[in-house]
Design goal:
The chain is of the alpha/beta class. Helix content is 37%, strand content 19%. It is globular and about 80 Å long. About 8% of the residues have low confidence.
């Protein structure tokens, strides 16, 4: 149904969240004379510009409307099945409305990896100079992009099972990253969940393409629904090694492979695609290191909403994970495989949030694992317990609070929490970088080193100009502040302490950076290709990892997984 076909019609919007509000705005713009009614279970909504039906009876009297537009967050309901002829969705309206504009839609779905894969495809196409937009489940509602549809425009759309289940049209290119049980509380069964996913391929035409994970029988069965060409991929098709990218975990090779195959089909030169892959920074809350604080490296994988994704996180990070936080909304998952993976790992402590925390604990206990399980009620309590448990015993503070540094700095910090102070200085230095810092930062981002450096990185109670967790490499550009004897003595003591953690520091002067930046970059590259491995070498102390990978959805205790990750980050840095 094209959005213009709704002009003058009586339309009910079911669900007035982000998608509901976006479709209301689109109807006002493209369907003049459309009479809008909003129906939502939330009786606290304040809707003044449309007729509304709020509260528990919001599904009553639906037969009085010409069309019912169901937002993806509204679960299947017996009342809705009786009105299926009137039912459509924002995603369906978008696909119908752009079908004759000459644009292309690449739909990406999967139980895991769809956000990263969609973002990778978009990054490659953007670097290749294509007119492309990343839309759908990952960001701005799809319906808001109708006006940007024109010949040669490419929409990369992340598509959830919620958005797929009501479709009768498929994107020209479909990508299937993975499949395992998810959203069972919404769909009711694995079979219903699989059926919803099949809609991404079922309505494709002979000229369309479906790229699918060749190691997943379920993905293959979804691809078999397509009338178009079926193209499998595996991690072996990735054009790079994982250590050449800024992503963590070998599971990301499969995501890279799918994005690369799609790009090749669209005739993007291989070299451009590879450069985009190596430069790709990854997404927030997906195996995102937020730095080393209190002698602990904190890793945010809040995107983990099922047991398999938590297993992948443990596989990616290896034996440095000593503490993991799990738990969230209970969707009836079988946590046995995750419990067995924890039992075979170096994890010593599991912090468990409600509601699924108790179920996870029981699964771990059945394995007989020598793991301490602690149930908590809030993220703050979880992180504070983690700090107490995961901190290495008798571990020296690599950066004693302001140590022998400048006395003026010490005076400014009196009675002010150290972390807040260094973050304040970090923000200030980002705003007022030296020319040498600006030049090096630009080169670090665009030189193809393939490592993830951070700028003005708070480490313990000082700041490194640039820092890479993966290489355990810090970079300092010395100015006049380093010229006095007291500061030089502090720098020496700091480097000695950092050495215990396997962290090296490269130190350059402003003049060296400005006069011979290529030489500087080559020196950094040599350190990045042969970093000092954690736990090797005399006196090197291994930094333990505290991992947030909940294996459960966030809803009920947090607004979404982003909110969960931000709370984790804020408390960890507190």
């Amino acid at each position: 149904m094209h959005i213009r076909d709704l002009a003058g019609k009586s339309v009910c919007i079911l669900g007035y969240g982000l998608e509901g509000k976006a479709i209301a705005e689109a109807l006002e713009k493209y369907a003049p004379g459309c009479r809008i009614t909003v129906a939502d279970k939330n009786y606290e909504l304040r809707i003044t510009n449309y007729e509304s039906r709020l509260g528990t009876n919001y599904l009553d009297d639906l037969d009085r409307f010409d069309v019912i537009i169901k937002s993806p967050g509204i679960p299947p309901d017996a009342l809705l099945t009786t009105h299926y002829k009137l039912l459509t969705s924002p995603t369906q309206i978008f696909l119908d409305s752009v079908a004759d504009t000459g644009s292309m839609v690449i739909g990406v779905t999967g139980s895991k990896g769809k956000s990263t894969t969609a973002s990778l495809i978009h990054a490659i196409l953007k670097k290749a100079g294509k007119d492309t937009y990343l839309i759908g489940n990952i960001g701005t509602p799809t319906i808001s992009f109708i006006e940007r549809s024109k010949p040669n425009t490419i929409f990369v759309q992340e598509m959830s099972s919620y958005q797929l289940m009501d479709l009768n049209k498929s994107p020209q290119i479909a990508v299937l990253t993975a499949f395992f049980p998810e959203h069972l509380d919404y769909h009711g069964s694995v079979e219903a969940y699989l059926e919803a996913k099949k809609h991404i391929a079922r309505f494709q035409k002979p000229d369309d393409r479906v790229f699918f994970n060749g190691e997943s029988e379920e993905c293959r069965s979804i691809a078999d629904e397509s009338k178009g060409r079926k193209i499998p991929f595996t991690a072996k098709n990735a054009p790079v090694r994982i250590d050449q990218t800024k992503l963590l975990g070998r599971h990301n090779l499969s995501n890279i492979a799918s994005a690369f195959k799609v790009a090749s089909f669209l005739r993007v030169p291989n070299q451009i695609a590879i450069e985009a892959i190596c430069e790709f920074q990854g997404l927030p809350h997906r195996l995102e290191s937020i730095g080393i604080h209190d002698g602990i490296e904190w890793v945010d994988d809040s995107i983990s909403t099922n047991p398999q994704s938590a297993i992948e996180a443990l596989n990616a990070l290896g034996d440095r994970v000593t503490t993991i936080i799990l738990g969230g909304q209970d969707r009836g998952f079988d946590f046995t495989p995750l419990a067995k993976r924890i039992a075979g790992s170096k994890v010593q402590t599991v912090i468990l949030l409600p509601d699924s925390g108790t179920t996870i604990r029981k699964a771990i206990e059945k394995t007989g694992a020598n793991v301490k399980c602690i149930e908590v009620k809030t993220m703050e309590e979880a992180v504070e317990r983690m700090k107490a448990i995961a901190r290495p015993p008798s571990s020296p503070n690599p950066f004693p609070p302001w140590g022998k540094g400048n006395s003026a700095e010490r005076e400014q910090c009196t009675h002010v929490p150290v972390q807040r102070t260094i973050l304040k200085f970090a923000r200030l230095m980002r705003k007022q970088p030296t020319k040498a810092e600006e030049l090096l930062w630009e080169k670090l981002r665009n030189n193809g080193i393939g490592k993830k450096f951070r700028r003005q990185h708070p480490f313990q109670s000082r700041i490194l100009d640039f820092y890479c967790d993966e290489c355990r490499l810090g970079i300092e550009i010395d100015g006049s502040v380093h010229d006095n004897n007291e500061q030089r003595q502090y720098d020496h003591e700091r480097e000695k302490a950092l050495g215990e953690y396997g962290i090296q520091i490269l130190r350059f002067t402003n003049e060296e950076v400005l006069n011979d930046i290529e030489k500087i970059i080559n020196q950094i590259k040599s350190k990045c290709t042969s970093p000092l491995p954690a736990g090797e070498g005399q006196g090197v102390r291994e930094v333990p990892i505290v991992l947030l990978s909940p294996a459960s959805p966030s809803y009920g205790h947090f607004k979404n997984f982003e909110d969960r990750g931000e709370q984790f980050k804020n408390v960890a840095l507190k």
